[in-house]
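Researcher: We're teaching a course module on how sequence relates to structure. For the next exercise, students receive a sequence and then see the predicted structure as tokens, so they can try to spot secondary structure elements on their own. Here is the exercise chain.
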Amino acid sequence: MHSKTMPTEPKTFNSQEPTLSNPPRRHFTRQRRQLSDGERRQLAQSASLHLTKLQQRLPTHARIGLYYDGFGELPTQLILDWCQRLGYLPYLPIVGSLGRTSNGNDDKRLRFVPVYHSKLINIPTCIHQLGMKQNHSRALLWASELDVIICPLVAVDEHGNRMGMGGGFYDTTLGKSYRSGLQGR
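Model: And here is the predicted structure for the students to work with:
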């Protein structure tokens, strides 16, 4: 089954500030960062109500890719709770698990590691050189092995097109082989 994305990112260079390459991305990122933690949690609660639409399309024990919410994204704990309540298998992304490309850059293809904890805060992580939290494990999956990937985003347009932080990790990972969003909304 091809992975699907559901709109819900980040590239940093030796700092905690994501790289923002265009004015709309900067504008939306600024707006997102102005939200309080309480507002973020409230918006995550509202967004989680849409998970029932996704649930209707998933197989039993679906493998679901999540994200760490470390750059102002909506908190993912509610999604993790939902996965665990319904018996889905949650996974988190790992950047650069394949080392470097032939031109010396980090390989931007994400792989995914299983989540064995009930709280994201309890997951042992390290900080990747780009500033993202990562949990290292030998049990890595390719995106194509997941049933769905819930991606972080800066903004989404009326057609469901996602604007990320500009790092290209999800774009590189998913390329043109994925179906975006839920059909028949």
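Model: If you want an answer key for the exercise: Residues 1-20, 181-185 have pLDDT under 50 and may be disordered. The first strand starts at residue 4 and ends at 7.
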